[in-house]
Queue: 2 jobs
Job 1
Amino acid sequence: PYVNTKEILEKANKEYYAVAALNINNLEFLQAILEAGIEKKSPLIIETSEGAIKYAGTGDPLRGAKFFVDMVKGFADTLDIPVSLHLDHGKDFKYIVSAIKAGYSSVMIDASDKPFEENVKITKEIVKIAHSVGVSVEAELGKLAGIEDNVSSAESVLVNPDEAKKFVEETQVDFLAPAIGTSHGAFKFKGEAKLDYDRLKQVKELTGIPLVLHGASSVVEEIVEIAEKYGADFGGSKGVPSEILKETVQLGINKVNTDTDLRMAFVAGLREYLHNNPKEFDPRNYMKKGKEYVKKVVADRLELLGSAGKA
Ligand SMILES: O=C(COP(=O)(O)O)N(O)CCCOP(=O)(O)O
Ligand SMILES: [Zn+2]
């Protein structure tokens, strides 16, 4: 069924596992993700950035938001696993309100690039609107480094746990994304992968609410190998290793944002299929391999995060 993200995350918080929040921009990634969730009997959070809504709605926020609600709700209402739809990195008021109006389960207000007091003020505004119609809210404290279209910041500023406690009390957000050293995209670490576990532990103790890890893709080795075999150049790519991801779940992360791993899996399958089937031009065929690899990456992640069997 189509449910509220808060319901999914409160259960995860109580039982100390995490739920994958999987970014989509089209039908094919949704199909692959849902197949993995059904196979693993796992709750799923489907999420779209403002860029995805712009892409699907060809520039009209409400048209794009409605497109995703109709598609995701249409599938979810026929399934036994709980599925929610979340607006990822909401920054533009028009997009946030369009998502709420269209029927999204939850929205992120990302004012993490603003000074603390301003982040509080903006977040309180969105919480008031969203909560008035039963929509839950995510916010971010601290800054992610790294770049991914329209989601980037120059330096990575880690979360201040005391600020996090104050922020949650003043804003009443439902879940919080503390910056602990990750970044968006496929090039997260120059040297050794390292996250600030102490800060994460303190934020959990001080707030007690479901926590979100952004920039949580692992950059899966087998996928990189396949993609590069068929012409991709992913040199220098490095994500969050599985054992580090597992540690963050033990320390209180309950929502794990994953986009890059899905993108790399899809393009690896697409390259492989097109290389091996030069005569093919039916999109229902040539996207099969890409969907297969997305499904595999998602299924493995659901096991890793401990949400498999929790539907
Ligand atoms: O945290 C993540 C993804 O992290 P990842 O890159 O490690 O998968 N996200 O919020 C996804 C951000 C996607 O934004 P856009 O559609 O504008 O490119
Ligand atoms: Zn993010």
Note: Residues 5-305 form a domain with the TIM Barrel fold (CATH 3.20.20.70).
Job 2
Amino acid sequence: MRLPTTPVTSLWRDLRDEVRHNYPAGRVVLAVDGVDGAGKTTFADGLAEAFSEAGSAVYRASIDGFHRPRSERYARGRDSAEGFYRDSYDYATFRRVLLDPFREGAQTGASTGFQLSAFDVTRDAPVEAAWVTAPRDAVLIVDGIFLNRPELRGLWNWALWLEVPYAVSFARMALRDGSDPDPDAPANARYRGGQELYRREARPSAAATAIVENSDLAHPVRIFGDYC
Ligand SMILES: Nc1ncnc2c1ncn2[C@@H]1O[C@H](COP(=O)(O)OP(=O)(O)OP(=O)(O)O)[C@@H](O)[C@H]1O
Ligand SMILES: Cc1cn([C@H]2C[C@H](O)[C@@H](COP(=O)(O)O)O2)c(=O)[nH]c1=O
């Protein structure tokens, strides 16, 4: 399907062309990172459509499909920002069932299967996702928080950081989820504090390959250097 031409789709196409210039063939893995509510899912879905219209086989996953069980996520306390940053996700499973077999498929003639999710955070239970195979030149786009942390950086061919102020991201989540729009609300402390810890420790905008300011959803803007 051909996307319309708008400032948003033009940016998706520019980013796609940049990735394809650097990785014209073989398996490619992209990360779309940003704070909760930055627009990661929406942006990653759009980027996937841009790859798709250019003929690539594209697979989508979210780190949200690899949560750890509540008992582990809350081990440091229900409101712990440190727990949010350090204990939210099962990166070993993420690598074992998705990243590693997806990459291996470039060598095995696409016979290696991978799973796009492993855990349902709402049910707090593992999911038995289908094993999927893909053509040799497939693209995988993963969205989610904390993807530019040091333990994950080496996994991506290309990583995006979506820059959005907390006032905007919490307002979006309030509209979407009915949560408190105030970034300073006690109910948001775990999430905001976890993001601040991440930004301090991991400097995600500096680690990313590209940065997009995504406050105006109709006009995302590519930015460069040490803007953040
Ligand atoms: N380009 C867009 N145009 C209109 N609305 C958008 C756009 N991008 C995101 N939104 C809206 O903003 C909200 C947050 O977007 P999205 O779910 O993509 O963010 P996210 O970063 O993936 O969030 P989370 O980390 O909480 O999963 C959603 O309600 C979504 O519908
Ligand atoms: C309630 C709430 C949740 N989230 C997101 C953050 C996590 O990825 C999941 C699970 O959160 P938990 O606190 O580890 O159970 O949901 C969020 O961003 N904002 C919220 O208010």
Note: The mean pLDDT is 96.
